[in-house]
Amino acid sequence: MNREEVIRRLNEVFRDVFDDDSISVSEETTSADIEDWDSIEHINLIGSVESEFGMRFKMREVSGMKNVGEMIRIICERGC
Amino acid sequence: MKELVFPFDSRAILRNKRELKKALLSDGTTRIKKNIAVLGGSTADHVVSMLRLFLLNNGIEPHFYKSEYNKFYEDAVFGSPELEAFKPDIVFIHTTSRNLSLMPERANITAEETKCLLDEQFGIFRQVWEGIEQRFGCPIVQNNFELPLFRRTGNFDCWSPSGQAAFINRMNVLLADYAREHQNFYINDINYLSSAIGLEKWHDAEAWYLYKYAMSTAVIPDLAYSAACIIKSIYGRNHKVIDLDLDNTLWGGVVGDDGVDGIEIGQETAVGQSYSEFQSFIKGYKDYGVLLAVCSKNDEENALAGLKHPCSVLGPDDFVSIKANWESKDSNIQNSADELGLLADSFVFIDDNPAECAIIEAQMPQVQTVCLSSVGNAMYALSRGGFFEVTSVSEDDMKRSQMYAENAKRAAQQKKFQSYGDYLKSLQMYASITDFDPVYRQRITQLTNKSNQFNLTTKRFTESEIEEVSVSPDHIRLCGRLTDKFGDNGIVSIVIARCEGSDAHIELWLMSCRVLKRDMELAMLDELVQKCRERGISRIFGYYYKTPKNSMVAGLYESFGFEPVEKCENGDSVWVLPTEGYTNRNNVIQKDKRSYSS
Q: What is the complex's ipTM, to 2 decimals?
């Protein structure tokens, strides 16, 4: 799957989880950019991304992700 | 909302929870408002958000108090100003095996030491419940404990003094005992839930390390659904009626096409057995005050005939409303509801036809539908759906009497039997030995074609040959059915004897191996001799034709007291019994009133 496809599907997950159709994520998006993105929603987001792409993040990745770009990189690395 | 009723898509609910919440809050439903305190032994945020959705979907608008992480004990025992001000209507204690702080660790711990730990651990929880009881006097919903996924010592873990599974199982028994003794205390059975879902899916150790979630986030909807069922039941939001289709729902086949003799119900076939079990399962709901109704596209005459089938567990009297006609099912459900003075939203509709279910879902979204793809799936969906969750206090008396009855039964079973005959008598067997009833012709034919072991002549019959025999004046026919205290074994033995002057020749004698060593063959013999005497027959000839499979009955006629007439080299043999002077041999099976002679 190419990066654009990953971003497109990731964007759908973000819009569902935060129930906000105006969201448009980019590689630079961080939790500071989305109002409801707190530590609890992060858990739900991670779970929803994992089920969307049929993969699991490693523990170090969950706590170390700085922005959406890193999330995309990990998803692409897993070959999803 | 269908998305929020079992079986649901947990991941989709988690992902879309905000949208679902918005949709529920704007659907115009009037809901009762309740304050619910969730005291967690692990992170409870997802539990709260899921509980909110399921309660909203059941007509309850919850307002939540959430304890700080793992402060369930402190909040309950010492109180907190916020909780006092909140005045909970219900307290949900969301704890898990992660909160069993006194679980045995050492390999060399003694049974006595473990018992002390158990008592102390239970004491901690008891303090929590008593604290809540004193402060708020409100209903308590308490998770019991799930089994661990990891077992250091393997199977030993479930019974050793150091075993964690052993400890958890004993805690669960203590909780159940407490629940029986205390009103307003309800167990959310996550021990069952985690087993049903599977411990491999339930547990997610990383979710614990990362977020202090005591189970996989993916199963939190299941946990919350289960707790929501208890809460809505406490507030009287249970469904009240099971409205059932008939053809291929309560029995196999279509009564209008196949006739009463053609539908499958009873112990004779696998399909028949499945519907019998389903009917028994449904009938059991009546004891909990659930009303049963019929909604079937049928002529009423046929519907009633089907329900009066001799093997039907449910009879017409079990239903408070029977709608068997050719009107649309949504109008029939509405009519039943009107007659009973109930709202259609208290109905659960069960039908094997997905099209009928879809129509009801579209026309009457307030009616809960269960599409019966198989009997097993339907029983699971009906029970996991929680539509009839039992919480009411008035059930206590019923449970008590049931408990007494069970104890008495166990005591009886513990008694040692003096002899095998005593054991057989204790089975309380009843034989119904009759002529070939047309309803059973199919089963009789089937038995003649599949019985190999307890079969003296292994003569095969077609259905039309059985019909011929059925009306023949020259034949004695015995069709034996056996019931005992554990249930109905169905048709188990067939005998056909051809009469010729003062002789009778046994052309067929077979018995199902499921009733071996029950003396059913003796009951059949007694009946055969009596029938022969009534016809003035003085000699009964028995034939044993040896096959590779029927050696178990090579000596049957001899054991019956027949004299040998001829023994062939190939193993076949011919036997004779004079009817004069024969005395009945069976003394453990009683005759059912439907028998020829009782």
A: 0.90
